[in-house]
Amino acid sequence: MKIYIRNMACESCKVFVREALEELDIPLVKLELGEIETKEDVSDDEKRELNNKIKKVGLELLEKKQGVLIEKIRKVMIDYVYNSEEKPNIKFSALLSEELNNSYTYLANFFSEVEATTIEQYIIALKIERIKELIIFGEHTFSEIAYMLHYSSVAHLSAQFKKATGLTPSHFKALKEKRRITIQNI
After folding, report:
1. Cystine design at 62: which of 4, 121, 146, 177 (Cβ 3.0–4.6 Å)?
2. Across-strand partners of 6?
3. What is the overall mean pLDDT for the chain?
4. What is the model's pLDDT at position 103?
C-alpha cells in the first residue's frame, strides 16, 4: 500500500517517519521523500495514529488525490534542487512532465492554483535555502554552488540570492563568519 506524506523534504524526515512506522509495527517496503510503501494495507486507525505522530514535526498524511499530486510535484522539485548536482540535459519543465506523465502546462497551472505560487517561484525559494545551507557549511565555492544548482553563472546566482534575501552571497557568508567569531569570543 502506498501512503503519501506532505512536507517531507530531507533525510531527517525519513528517519522520523521510519521510527513512527516501527513504533506502530507497520512493516515497510520502501521509504522515499513524500511516499511510503507498506507490505500490508494500513487501517484507518493506524493511519490516524501515524498522522498524529508525524504531525509533531510538521508532516501530514495525504488522502486527497490533489494533495498527492502536489506532493509528487514538490518531490521532483526537491530532488532537482537537492540531489541533482550534474546539469540535466533537459529543461526542468520537460523533466517534470516526464516524471509525472502529464503536460507541464497542466502541472504548473494546478500547482499555482493550489499553492498560490508558481513552480518557478517555489524552485527559486528551494534554491535560496539550499544556497544558504551550502554557504553555512562552507565546503563549496560560489562557482561550485552555482554549478550544483544549475545556475548559468555566479552572477546569476548572486542576483537571484540578493533579490530574494536582500543580501549578496558574500555578505551572507561574512555575516556567518562574524557570528561565529562573536560566539567564540563569549
Report:
1. 4
2. 60
3. 87
4. 95
What pLDDT was estimated at residue 87?
A: 64
Q: DSSP letters along 74-134, please?
A: HHHHHHHHHH--SPPSS-HHHHHHHHHTS-HHHHHHHHHHHHSS-HHHHHHHHHHHHHHHH
- Sheet with strand 28-32: strands edge to edge: 28-32, 35-38, 2-6, 60-62
Q: Say if residues 3 and 42 touch (Cβ distance below 8 Å).
A: yes
Cell of 39: 507490505
pLDDT of residue 183: 47
Are 149 and 159 a contacting pair, CB within 8 Å?
A: no
Amino acid at 106: Y
Helices (H), 138-184: 142-148, 154-165, 169-184
Cell of 2: 502506498
pLDDT confidence of residue 120:
95
Q: What is the largest CA-CA distance in the chain?
A: 56
**What per-residue confidence (pLDDT) applies to 125?**
94
